[in-house]
TrEMBL record, chains A, B:
<keyword id="KW-0328">Glycosyltransferase</keyword>
<dbReference type="InterPro" id="IPR017045">
    <property type="entry name" value="Malt_Pase/Glycosyl_Hdrlase"/>
</dbReference>
<dbReference type="Pfam" id="PF03632">
    <property type="entry name" value="Glyco_hydro_65m"/>
</dbReference>
<feature type="binding site">
    <location>
        <begin position="592"/>
        <end position="593"/>
    </location>
    <ligand>
        <name>substrate</name>
    </ligand>
</feature>
<dbReference type="InterPro" id="IPR005195">
    <property type="entry name" value="Glyco_hydro_65_M"/>
</dbReference>
<dbReference type="GO" id="GO:0047656">
    <property type="term" value="F:alpha,alpha-trehalose phosphorylase activity"/>
</dbReference>
<dbReference type="InterPro" id="IPR011013">
    <property type="entry name" value="Gal_mutarotase_sf_dom"/>
</dbReference>
<dbReference type="GO" id="GO:0004553">
    <property type="term" value="F:hydrolase activity, hydrolyzing O-glycosyl compounds"/>
</dbReference>
<feature type="domain" description="Glycoside hydrolase family 65 central catalytic">
    <location>
        <begin position="323"/>
        <end position="679"/>
    </location>
</feature>
<dbReference type="Pfam" id="PF03633">
    <property type="entry name" value="Glyco_hydro_65C"/>
</dbReference>
<feature type="binding site">
    <location>
        <begin position="358"/>
        <end position="359"/>
    </location>
    <ligand>
        <name>substrate</name>
    </ligand>
</feature>
<dbReference type="InterPro" id="IPR008928">
    <property type="entry name" value="6-hairpin_glycosidase_sf"/>
</dbReference>
<dbReference type="InterPro" id="IPR005196">
    <property type="entry name" value="Glyco_hydro_65_N"/>
</dbReference>
<dbReference type="InterPro" id="IPR012341">
    <property type="entry name" value="6hp_glycosidase-like_sf"/>
</dbReference>
<keyword id="KW-0808">Transferase</keyword>
<dbReference type="GO" id="GO:0030246">
    <property type="term" value="F:carbohydrate binding"/>
</dbReference>
<feature type="domain" description="Glycoside hydrolase family 65 N-terminal">
    <location>
        <begin position="14"/>
        <end position="266"/>
    </location>
</feature>
Amino acid sequence: MTETQTIIDSWKVTTTTLNKAEKRLQESLTSIGNGYMGMRGMFEETYSGDKHEGIYLAGVWYPDKTRVGWWKNGYPDYFGKVINTVNFLKMQFFIDGEEVDLYVDEVSDYEQALDMYNGVLTRSFVVHKGEKRVKITVERFVSIATKELCEVQVSFENKGAPASVKVVSAIDADVSNEDANYDDKFWEVVEKEATSESCLLIGRTIANDFNIPRFTVGFKMTHSQTGFEALTPAVKAAAVAVAYEANLAEAAVATIGKRVLVVTSRDFETVTAIKTEIERLVTALAPQSYDDTKAAHERLWHQRWELADVVIGGDASAQQGIRFNIFQLFATYYGEDSRLNIGPKGFTGEKYGGATYWDTEAFAIPFYLALAAPEVTENLLAYRHQQLPQAQHNARQQGLAGALYPMVTFTGVECHNEWEITFEEIHRNGSMVYAIYNHANYTGDETYLLDKGIDVIVEVARFWADRVHYSKRNDTYMIHGVTGPNEYENNVNNNWYTNFMAQWTLNYAIETLPKLSQAKRAALNISVAELKQWGDIAAKMYLPTDETEGIFLQHDTFLDKDLTPVAELDPTALPLNQNWSWDRILRSPYIKQADVLQGIYYFPERFTRAQKQQNFDFYEPLTVHESSLSPSVHAILAAEIRYEDKAVEMYERTARLDLDNYNNDTEDGLHITSMTGSWLAIVQGFAGMRVSNDELSFKAFLPQKWDNYSFHINFRGRLLLISVDETGTKVTLISGESITIKVDEQTVALTKEA
Amino acid sequence: MTETQTIIDSWKVTTTTLNKAEKRLQESLTSIGNGYMGMRGMFEETYSGDKHEGIYLAGVWYPDKTRVGWWKNGYPDYFGKVINTVNFLKMQFFIDGEEVDLYVDEVSDYEQALDMYNGVLTRSFVVHKGEKRVKITVERFVSIATKELCEVQVSFENKGAPASVKVVSAIDADVSNEDANYDDKFWEVVEKEATSESCLLIGRTIANDFNIPRFTVGFKMTHSQTGFEALTPAVKAAAVAVAYEANLAEAAVATIGKRVLVVTSRDFETVTAIKTEIERLVTALAPQSYDDTKAAHERLWHQRWELADVVIGGDASAQQGIRFNIFQLFATYYGEDSRLNIGPKGFTGEKYGGATYWDTEAFAIPFYLALAAPEVTENLLAYRHQQLPQAQHNARQQGLAGALYPMVTFTGVECHNEWEITFEEIHRNGSMVYAIYNHANYTGDETYLLDKGIDVIVEVARFWADRVHYSKRNDTYMIHGVTGPNEYENNVNNNWYTNFMAQWTLNYAIETLPKLSQAKRAALNISVAELKQWGDIAAKMYLPTDETEGIFLQHDTFLDKDLTPVAELDPTALPLNQNWSWDRILRSPYIKQADVLQGIYYFPERFTRAQKQQNFDFYEPLTVHESSLSPSVHAILAAEIRYEDKAVEMYERTARLDLDNYNNDTEDGLHITSMTGSWLAIVQGFAGMRVSNDELSFKAFLPQKWDNYSFHINFRGRLLLISVDETGTKVTLISGESITIKVDEQTVALTKEA
């Protein structure tokens, strides 16, 4: 939505225009979800214009045969895709027999609003059919109280002469995926039945050639109606439907509620078990009205906000931005299911296919560490631990020892199909270990590290030890042929970040081993020779630097480039990925997202202020921030070196990236995993939160535009409130035991206020 | 075929085994063609086992929508493919009503032979059906006397009790392409008719989304029969067919001839014109029997051999190898049509899709310069000149000035879909200019260079001038982000070969400009500033070298690799492209084909013997020769530095690459463009032919295994015979004016013998 479309409201994303040219963007921005399922802000009823309808179920996916030009050894067989599920929202509205279709109908008083405080999407408008005028209001939510539940309520208020209104409500398995490689439709119907009481459809994902289990999903809908009469239900080839009709006198109102329950074979294996569970849920919910279920759902959202809200005084736009991001993150993942992870588009689109990227470890874990129960982060770590055998398989596919965590995956097996990413963007392995370290560092609890984390660390260390090569000429270990976090270069040699993370992982493994139990150490089976080799490699790892510039080198030949800063580029060239050929991008010095700076961000205590500043001064002017993951890291580092204006500029890009469609691609879905970035920019950036040497510290500044800001964090069993205004920074212990922290380099003892 | 399968016969490729496991390989090795059309050694009749049937028409192709994982700016929309044409060979044989199918039938006395001297493929076998025994002999050729003509003759000799034989002969448009991206069938039927006299089918390639004209092709078949009676013809959905029946007494013989004429919209635009042309051809050929047309065809093959044959004494295997290569090259291209080029698989397979690669300029032009009329080479050069606007378009697609000749093309527009090739393997542009230089150097005639060649050279120079960047730090011009001829590395910086070719092109352009007419120069519109810029770039072009090793560096960081020679690898790892992951290959030091050595090969007079030897000694031990284009260059350089054993080893790999299935991929088709390599290895390698400073010279050696060898070349209006035996080298002027050449560094005046 362009600025004129979205009304700045601190708790809502509202528009009063139906922008047909940007329907997809409006759909993305009004997505909702409950971690179990979610959907784009698609319309329930028919809309014949360009749109991108999508409803997604967490963990229900399809292995789509890899589509490449020329096959290369080591390629994954399939690209795993979150698939558009059976359309259970589907409705049709008719007024005097004519179908409502906002693409062609005359409409007035349009309003669509995502209420983030309550987790409810509403839409209302008056549709004109000849002389008739009917106001239609649609409300929907996916319950966080009952994860299998989606409710829709539609009311029709007659604003003109008497009219008949008909509603057809369906569950339709005939859905497509825009992202399908070979235009397959992914659902087949196993069972269907329709009565005027309820309709049931059991769908199953189509067969595949890769021994990936098929998913079976049951969908049941019941309806409540006021002023409507039920007509005969219909069973179609791939759908079940039921119709309702009402004759509305002038000013009369009729309402219909659609309650849908969705149960999948992820939780209940057989069709029978799925049906039994659906019946159980239907029965359990039967006593509750739409208002009841909605109230239960909203109450839980209020609780979430109580902990997670970041309050910004004096900047409604920033306030809306941070809430939108937190809302969408929680809609995607709230940590209930360790088999799940945080997909980069969540439930808001198909692009990027897979479920899990390194974004989780790099950017999401700090957020969940601070804002969710400790189990949530452990679930995210356990997800990778469970997938260790698959990560070993991935390494074997490349002919290497140890474990290579995938770039994109559902099962742990790599399913991205570009060699320059799959085979080369191996720095991701470092973030798997970093997340384990980060958890231990933040929580001060090494139980997970020593019990399970070490399994991952050792296998990743083994991978690095095999992936390096010894360069005789230089008497160093090198890593050739990688893609760093900056995906605007490929197949570079000695990417500083990758080499640094490999070295750090080897050292971290070596340091951690002595802390293990005898039994655990024996189980890991690390020989003296192996340990010595890790030490040698870490000691002789080549870390390219340039003394003249005083920087770490992004890779061996980076300084040979034409180093014209972004500011001197013709602005029409931006974003580069939409305007330049891939060739030009690759050989340019322009950086998609933090690369050297990512390493500095990860380990703030390992680098001097001068190092931070010199590297920032060198690389940031060459950075185009065309990854949604880029601005937050830069905001945090800029804040640390007190480039306050730059920090705010970067924050603004991350905070309203989707709301303002910065990268011109939000129509495909929201940048879910990078949404943590705006929270990180405030908390680690503006407020300067760090955890070093077992101590929590803050070193805050207040952006000029803001009057104040405050947020809560969980820290080692305490709940803290951090408030920053022009008088300074105040940290309050809301619950938990006393603790000593640092604020602005002063030691502060926090005790519970009376 | 494994060695036991192929009988070493200097003029034939013969097998007496029907090897069902290697049917595809047998098909590849028995391909025939006439430059206009050709086909794999597929059977006419039904064969239900694994096979790869393919008949191809030169220049008849389809733009198949690009299939990539993730789209990148600059990608071509489509991958152009030589498509399998309507199956006009199709026949079915029945004995007493049971269909002959060699995959399941018992067969004896099997023999299949490609007669290279005559250009005819024959096959004979006795098929056992219960007690019945019928000997079937099939003979086919595609005429080089009438390009539109293909003839098949089948005879049935009854070796047992009386039997009925039925033959169904068809033209069938229901064909598939193994290489289709989306499993499309590429032909639709426009018209079909069948009478007992003749059958006609007009096919058209299916529609496409890329504004590429569709091809219409007319196929007509007539039959001649001895002992057979015609049955009612049949018109099917996508085929026309006619059946013949014969009752064969014991020892009786019946014969059927199938004459097919193929006319395409490349020559005749409308369906009417195509039909008229077919009728004209049918009428013109009507008086000629099968034996007549065959004799006319064979006579022309004899003439071709008279000039082109290389005679090797004492090594039947080598003799067969060189003849096979020359035969397949001429079957693919004999220079009649400047709209055509030499596809890497010719008419022998689908792989590599496109029609034209830089192989033509690098490896085929020297062959055609010596063995064909001068117009043939000029046609090959003109092909690129015609496509200059498309090459300019390709450069624009990458955001660059000048012209970028495509990696793969039909029309001149790039249609390969991997960025590391399309966008980066730009050294190909250098070979376009080299071919023009090579033609001028060999012929001593600069007319083409100054009239048309310069258009290409100037646009390629403009491309290089824009593609380089100035590296402030080094005060040199560099070329980053390329793939050199060694495709086992991608996205390297300062590939010596690419930089060298760019520098040479700029200098060649600068040297040539003063020779142009005033008008031509004006038309090219080169400003003083532009010319100065070319001079600056050429003068400051960075050419990476290493003083310690005394070598040119393949690229900036090549020496940082683990430089273990191929000889020390576990032999089971070879070929690497079938055993190693792409990742491992890319970061390894192993070289697919000559890279630095390609540049040294191109310009033998520019490098000292020491430079040649040092670079050969360094790079060859790291080279796996997994491109069919590799061994010939190495054979030539090895011969020059008098590594005679190495030269012979390399020659043997190139000469029998397909016959011995060296790279284990001949089942996909023959390596047509690299077939020139064995000729080059003998002529430029063993015989040491060079043309330098307007002088032809030879410096030959005789491989130990050989008694002698001899060949002809055309040179500047003369025909020369070069004979080498243990007594030395003798060059004889067969026709043309006297000329002075050098043999073993001695000046020799050649005059016509009395």
